[in-house]
Amino acid sequence: MGRQKQNKPRRERSIGPSALADMLDLPTVISQGQTGVVLDVAAVGFAGDDLADDDRPAYVRLTGGSVKLLPVGLRPWARGVVTRDLELRAAGDASLFPCRIGFGITDGAAHAELL
Asked: What's the superkingdom here (predicted)?
């Protein structure tokens, strides 16, 4: 008799954080010196594998495990933070994460700051 074909378990398709995450709700703050909401962040990253795609959603992974999407206006900030973290680790220095980050909206613009 011929060989029977074995059914291999199917590998689950990877779903990026953007498919599972809620948008980070940013509070409006009165002045730049105030911090709207402070979160304990384990990582900042981007959904997907295409590193050249500037339109990929940015997200923060909180130390509690939940994931929050960042508003479009914070993508350049996220890219800078990810780049800096990679540079530090490549040089053998400690990662920026985990850390506390303050988020808010001032004068209509989203902002974030490592505390």
From this structure: Bacteria
Query: Which positions ≥6 away from 50 have C-beta within 8 Å?
Result: 56
Strands 58-62 and 37-46: antiparallel
Instruction: Say which residue the tokens 């940013």 belong to.
Output: 26
The contacts of residue 69 (CB under 8 Å, 6+ apart) are 17, 18, 21, 22, 23, 24, 57, 58, 59
Instruction: Please write the tens of the pLDDT for every residue from 70-99.
Output: 999 999 999 999 999 999 999 999 999 999
Straight-line distance from the first to the last Cα atom of the chain, in angstroms, rounded to the nearest whole number? 69
Order of all β-strands in the sheet with 37-46: 22-23, 67-69, 58-62, 37-46, 99-106, 109-114
